[in-house]
Fold these 2 entries.
Entry 1:
Amino acid sequence: MELPKGFVEKLVALRDAHYALRDADPSEPFQFQMGLVSSSWPEAGQFLTDDGSMTYDVPRPDLTYKREFLYEMVYNGFFPVEAGGVGGRILEDLYFQRYSELTLSFWTRLVGGPWGFLKGIWVTSTLNTILQGVSQNPASFKLLIAGQFHLVFKKSTRAKTDMSLFRTMDSKTIAQPEPNTVPVTRYAAGMSRGLYFNDDEEEEDSSSSEHSKEESTDVFRSLRKKPEYCGTFYYREPESNAYLKYGRALVAKDKSEALANMIYGGKPRVMDSFQKLVLRALETYDKLDLMFTPSEFVTFVKKVMSDDTLGKRVDNVIELPSNVENMLKDMRLKDPVVRDDTRRYYCGHVLGVYAAEDGLDQAICRNARAQGYDIIILERMVGSRQLVTEVLDVRSREESFKNLYFLKED
């Protein structure tokens, strides 16, 4: 089916008229919201609201063509707002056809299928705005679309920032990696989940060692304290040009293990949350990589639900669909080959274990500082798109950035 005649052309004309009317920088993004099919086209400057947000309400076209619409919109520099986060992963999988639509329908379980984001909000992007976003967010979809492959880390596929945003007058340049350094990368957005920053309270956090010792013996008191400055998160990134220098480090599988090692010698589980029960189930059934085929996922769900110690409590977290097996059967009926059924899908969000341990950040920082650690290396954290290694620097923000060493450029 062909695209609605003139739709994208009208969108491009509205974009050009907007920039001409406002005499604005063409790289300044603004948004289009898909309205009713019967809506009329707005004029330049005729925004959806008068609150200062530059959002136009445009007629929603017939979206039965889906992929063709996505390709033409992206070709003309329009991207769904969901191009970041979980929605961004679905968008990428559809755009690059990594999985069949049926398989993605199984995994996303979205109303209206995986193409639902087409009816939402779109934002303008130019090459300049895409390049400006490199230091802000690890998402690399727009970079790949723009052919900027040199700005993407090959293995992790994160945006390749040069970390210049975090350079200071004290930053050191080195010819090669030094002992007690770890290669890291960091972005201006999306690296503060679970962390809080308040300069006034930072002084309170650096109180007497006796106070710190008292706090370190009571994890739950740490969790209840008023939020304050905690620490600085980085991704471990072997291809990075920036290295974080440290004196003493603690290495742990995840945040729960790190806290257990510092407080209880690593013996008991620190958190008995529902999310931890999910992780325990994954460990029990040897699926810690969070990679499943649809068939494996159905088998996992059935095993967990039949486990008297895990089933009901796990179901409260991940909301396992009671018809998950029927969903798989239905998918096979529609496509008997189901070629994607042998391809595994990362299920961090599907299982509800992404960011499950963020509530431990404050307690980890307090105890690590009290015990003289500079950094904590968390080797197996559940990321939004893959398992990642995170580095938490519990020193002050200023001290952390001062200890960033940069490789000398050739």
Note: Residues 274-346 form one domain.
Entry 2:
Amino acid sequence: MMKIAILYNILEHTATHCNSLQRTATHCNALQRTAIHCNTLQHTATHCNTLQHTATHCNTLRHTATHCNTFQRIPTQCNTLHHTATHCNTLQQTITYCNTLRHTPTHCNTLQHTAIYRNALYCACSRAVVRAECV
């Protein structure tokens, strides 16, 4: 009977151990499924970050393209402004030249008037000198 009791204890211990191993296996399977799920989530997060980075890069490229188009229009506007400035300088020189031409006859008239007045004074002085000698 002692052998049966020992055998019974061994069987009972083996059954308990077997149940423990079965629970461990079940727990291990659950952990494995969790790990697989975690890897999937990690892969999804990485993919999401890549997509977010791509979207940011795309927005940067779009902004750069807009900026580039603006810069592309600037030379045309600059050429237009340069042409306008050149035209304005030409007009300014023409106006200065016209003002000079308009001022020239006035200046000539003034010089002519001054010359006539000096001649008249000279003649008057000359006559006065001659009369003084004659008297």
Note: Residues 1-104 form one domain.
